[in-house]
Amino acid sequence: MTPGNGSGDQRAAVLAAAFRHALTLAGMAEGSTAPNPTVACVLLDVAGQTLVAAAHPGTGHPHAEALAIRMAREAGLADRIATVIVTLEPCNHHGRTGPCTEAILTTPAREVWFALPDPNPVASGGSERLRRAGLTVCALEELDHPDRAELLAKATRLLAPFACRVQRGRPFITVKQALDTVGSMFPPPGQKTFTGPEALTLAHRLRRRADAILTGSGTVLADRAAFTVRHVPDIPGKSRILCILDRRGRVDAAYLEEARQRGLRPVVAHDLATCLQDLGAQGCNEVLVEAGPVLLQTLRQIGLWDEWVLIRQASPGQSDHITITSNTHPV
Ligand SMILES: NC(=O)c1ccc[n+]([C@@H]2O[C@H](COP(=O)([O-])OP(=O)(O)OC[C@H]3O[C@@H](n4cnc5c(N)ncnc54)[C@H](OP(=O)(O)O)[C@@H]3O)[C@@H](O)[C@H]2O)c1
């Protein structure tokens, strides 16, 4: 199961470390790749030394494996590639780029480890293709190492937005909700927020990785929120859809125009399910819901959410309390 140099335990430790490296790299690309998944690849030599590591930079760019192989070639290291570690099963189809399976088969690699199978039926089948070509292909769940479950959980969470879109036709839904010390969502008069700096940074990190923001007319009318990424650096060139549920048409054209000028792509929607399907069809892997109690209660009641980020305002002088809950039930 774990060919190569060294004992089985040592080899498994090398592979686990390489998976950790790849998952960290992929995590750094989170939010940059829609409609593609966040994927990273690490190439090892026969001794288990890292030759090259690369993450998929986003649509229109090479996939992680193809990029890593190209980098290895440019560095004169390609003939030393023995093992390919990748966070997602190599694709086996001709999309905007060639199949990663074929890129791998141009190298001397004899072994491929991937974290998760491809949830996209169009691109799957890579393992079979590589096995037919005589390579040893293994999934992370086969790795005999104490960190396996943790690594699998990391990989699953990283892939979740893409998997959600390709399997359910809608983006992964992250809800952000802030409650003050008495459990109210309403900021005091004249303020748009009541949370501290740590929660504010988290909120902007959530915006950064989201491909769309979903809100309700109530929030727009009360706050005229900017919905831009400010407290962390934004992903260069990224533009988000701002979807506003507003059946009564209360949101004014001036607000929509200002949003456009801030780089957002505002759309007014009348139906929640339709707007989520539309976001999925437009390639949004993740939507961040930043709305008031009316919309949040609907989402909670029908279980239409994937991750709920709850920020509870702390007493003066203390940090806000943040909990992240995952909705593992199918919706
Ligand atoms: N603490 C926090 O985390 C937080 C976050 C955001 C906002 N807020 C606060 O929340 C307050 C606004 O509350 P709110 O409950 O009125 O805001 P909201 O939920 O953002 O907006 C409610 C409006 O959105 C539309 N809508 C909601 N659900 C819908 C659905 N399922 N389908 C179609 N349309 C739907 C409805 O307008 P139509 O009937 O016209 O369609 C509804 O009146 C503000 O004071 C704001 O500061 C707090």
Question: How would you summarize the topology of this molecule?
Answer:
Blueprint: H1 8-28, E1 40-44, E2 50-55, H2 64-74, E3 83-88, H3 100-105, E4 111-116, H4 126-132, E5 136-139, H5 148-168, E6 172-179, H6 197-209, E7 212-216, H7 217-223, E8 241-245, H8 253-261, E9 265-269, H9 272-281, E10 286-289, H10 293-302, E11 307-312, E12 321-326
Key attributes of the depicted protein:
single chain, 331 residues, alpha/beta, Cytidine Deaminase, domain 2, Dihydrofolate Reductase, subunit A
Describe the structure.
By secondary structure, the protein is of the alpha/beta class. The protein has two domains: 157 residues, Cytidine Deaminase, domain 2, CATH 3.40.140; 157 residues, 3-Layer(aba) Sandwich (Dihydrofolate Reductase, subunit A). Helices cover 35% and strands 20% of the residues. It contains ten helices and twelve strands. The chain has a seven-stranded mixed β-sheet, with helices on both faces. A five-stranded mixed β-sheet has the order 2-1-3-4-5, with helices on both faces. Helix 3 links the parallel strand 3 and strand 4. The two termini are 37 Å apart. The model has no long low-confidence stretch (mean pLDDT 94). The structure holds NADP nicotinamide-adenine-dinucleotide phosphate. The site of NADP nicotinamide-adenine-dinucleotide phosphate has 25 residues, from strand 6, strand 7, helix 7 and helix 10.
